[in-house]
Amino acid sequence: MADEIVIRTGRAEFDSLYSRVKGFLEQDTLDVTIDAGKIRGYRSPDARSIWIRDFSDMMRGFKYFEEDLTSTIDHFAETQNRNGRIFDYFTTFPEKLPSERENWTKYVRVPVEADVEYRFVKAVFLAWQATGDDDWMRGHLLAMADALEYIRAHPWRWDEERGLVKRPYTIDTWDFAYTAGHHEWLQFQIDDDTFWGISHGDNSGYLEAYLLLAMMLEQCGELDRAALWRERAHAIRAALKRTCFNGKFYTHFVKLTPVTIPGVDESSQLSLSNPMAINRGATSHEMAVSILREYRDRGEETESFAEWFSIDPPFPDGVFGDEKLVGGAYVNGGIMPLVGGELARAAFEHGFEEYGASILRRYHNLIEESGESYLWYFPDGTPAGVETSTSPEAQPTDGWGASAMLYALVEGLAGVEDWWTGFRRARISPRWLAAGVEDAEVKVGYRASGKSIHYKFALLGGRIRIEVGGDGSEVLFHVLLPDDSLAERVAIDGDTAEFRNLTVGDSRYVDFSIQLFGEAVVEITLDGAAM
Length: 531
Prior knowledge:
The chain is α+β, with helices and mostly antiparallel strands and 531 residues long. It is built from 14 helices and 22 strands. The protein has helices at residues 12-15, 17-26, 52-62, 71-78, 116-131, 134-138, 141-153, 200-219, 223-244, 273-279, 285-301, 337-349, 353-368, 399-413, and strands at residues 5-8, 29-34, 37-42, 50-51, 89-91, 106-108, 158-159, 164-165, 167-168, 196-198, 254-255, 270-271, 311-312, 416-418, 425-428, 439-445, 452-460, 463-480, 487-492, 495-496, 500-504, 507-526.
C-alpha cells in the first residue's frame, strides 16, 4: 500500500474518492516566494491567493499526502499583527484582471470577518497532527493564544454581555455585509451603518479552537493554561446554545442592531455552519439529531438536486449589493459540496449512517461523469461560472468541498480518526454495513511523518473479524453492528476483552480498546453465534 489512503470495498463510489479528491487538490497548489522564502499553499477555486480559511479546511484532504504542511502557516504567523490579528490571505498575483496587472505581494484582512483566527489555530493543529513535530507546534503557541485573545478583546469582535463573538450582518461566515442600500456594492468594511449580530459559525469555530489549543498546551506541559482554555470552551458552548439555538437548529444571525430585511425570517434560515457546529463539538447528540433531521426533511421537500444549501431559504435577489447574488447563487442558497461533506460527517457520528453514505454516493455521481467539482452549484445542478459569480474565477477543481467529502469518508464511513498525532491515540469506527459493504480494506497515513494505521473488516455470518495494524497506537474501537444485533463476546488475538454495547439513535455499536504494537486480530461474536 504505497498511497497514504487506500480504501478497497469493491464500490467505486468509495474506492475512487481519495484519488479524485487528491487529483483536484494537486491542481489547487499555489507556490509563491516572499522575502526569499518558498511557501507552499493551496488556493480556493475562485482566486489565485492563499486564504487561511480555505487552506485550513482543505488541509483535511491534503494533510495525508502533502510534505510541506507548515510554510503557509509559518507565513501567517510571521505577518501577524501586534494585537493578534491574522491576515485573511496573501498573494503575489494580480487579482482583478484586466484592471490590475501588478504582481505585488499583497496582504488582506477583510474587516467584517470574525472567523480568521480560529482557522489559524485549526491549521496549526492539523499540521502538528500530521507531522508530529512538537517543537514546531510549540513555536506557535504564543501566536495562537494572541490570536484568540484578540478576538476576545477587540471591540469589533467580542460581545461582552453575551460572552460570544460578534460580526456585521453577513451570510453565515462569508465576507460581505448587509447595508440596507447604504453601500453601492458588496460591503467589506465596518462603518457607522454596520448592523451587528451573532453568527453561530464564528462561535462554534472558536469553541473548537479553544479545545485544540488546550490539547496542544497539554502536550507542552502547560496544564494551567490548558485548563483556562477548556473553561472558556465550556462557557462559549453554553452561551452559544442559549443565544442561537432555536430548538431545531442554530439561527442564522441573531441581531444586536435592530434591522428588518423585507421578506426574510432569520429564524427559518438554515445556514451552512450548522453541520460544522456538530463536527466542532458545539452540539449535544440531541441537538445534532435535530439539525440532521432538518436537513433530511428539507431534502425530501426541496426541488434542488441536493440539500447542501449555503442557506435556505435564500435572501431576496441582490439585497447584499450585487445583482449576481440571486436566490440559489453562491452563498445565497447555492448548493455546496462543502456543506454536503460536513453534513455526511455529522450524520455518520449521530446515528444517520445510511444518510451519510447516500451523500457520498451522490457526490460521486456528481463528479464522476465530468471529472469536475465546483465550489457551488445552482439548485438545478448548473455549476458556478465566471459570469454568474461575484468571484473572479470558477475552477472545476474545488478542493474545499472535495476535502469535506473526503473527511466524511475517512473519518465517518471508514471511521479512522486521529485523536492526537500520528495515530498515537485513534478511534476506528467501521460503518461499512450502513453502506451495504461487508468486506473492506482501509489504510490511512501521513506522508509528512510516515505514520499510518490500517485495518481489514469482514462480516462473516454471526461474527465480525477485524485485522488491525499500527505502531504504538492506543485505539478505541466503535464498531457499527448489523441491525438488531448485539456483541456477545469480543476477543483480541483469542483473548476475551472488555466491551460495551451501546446505541446511537437507532444504530447499535460495540466499543472496546486496544493498545497496538504491530498487528492484532479482533473477533466480535454477535448475539448467540458460536465462535
